[in-house]
Amino acid sequence: MSADSAAPRTHRPADDPVVRDDADHWSGASIVPSQSIAGRALTLVIAIMTFLASLTAGAVTVIDDAARSWASDIGREVTIEIRPIDGVDIDAEIRRAVALAQEFSGVGRVHALSDDETRRLLEPWLGAGLDLDALPVPRLVIVEIADPALLDLAEMDREVGETIRGASLDDHAAWVDRLRAMAGAMVVGGVTILVLVLVALVLSVVFATRAAMAGNSDIIGVLHFVGAEAGFIAREFQRHFLMLGIRGGAIGGGLAIAVFALAGWLTQGTAGIPGADQLTAFIGGVSIPPFGYGAVLVLIFAVAILTAATSRFAVHGALAEIE
Fold this sequence. Notes:
- The protein is an alpha+beta fold.
- It has 11 helices and 4 strands, in the order H-H-H-E-H-E-H-E-H-E-H-H-H-H-H.
- Strands 2-3-1-4 form a 4-stranded antiparallel sheet.
- It has 2 domains: 16-71 and 177-322, no CATH class; 84-165, no CATH class.
- The protein has helices at 3-6, 17-27, 37-75, 90-102, 115-126, 153-163, 173-215, 217-225, 230-269, 274-283, 290-322, and strands at 77-82, 107-112, 139-145, 167-170.
């Protein structure tokens, strides 16, 4: 055995010409194969996670937009409810309620619901052909608010209670508070689900990075032996997982946008169907606002960056254990 062969092997410094040539060689070829079963599987996982996160983000924007629209619509009007009382001409009380509401400043249009309008309002729950005289159904007077600053709701409430028999004023404040609380809880739940999906994505990338390093341990060992810096190896993995994140995020986000567009088209195409009309009245139609589509696009890039950053940190942690 020669002296040269018996000499112990040592790590070459990072600025050694051999190491620089080795780095130049590997700069044109990735340490991790770009097309592998594990890579395609991770792309599918990222696409599914991005799809679920995008659906959650879109649902949150729909709920928030519907709640704001509801609160705005409800806040623009109040209702005078007139209950039937034996021996009292309810039609006369309705006319008096309309005249009383029109006397207040800040009031716009005042409209008393006709019997036909009341029947249509109750038809989804009580069925068609409802006899209003056979049931103690309150009659409604809708008072639209033109200028909330000029309207004294407390005074109107007092006047209605004292002047109109069997009447009361409903400013819908309780319903608005409940609606806001419900929408807030649903938004918090959606954001929680979104965070959990992203956490699951991070864990998947960590395990995939560890598996990729284990599968390419020989190459990593050689590079580490000849003095390649941890940053160089981490950048190779980061570039690989960034491309996987971009592809998976684009697939998942694109599918989510397609689902949003299809849902909007279906809700428009089912107009006139009782069940669909009730759903539309409740949430205002499954129409994603522009902010929702923007959130999906941001989420696609966020997933790609998160995937790359997670892989980089995972590689640094694994190399630190090796050293």
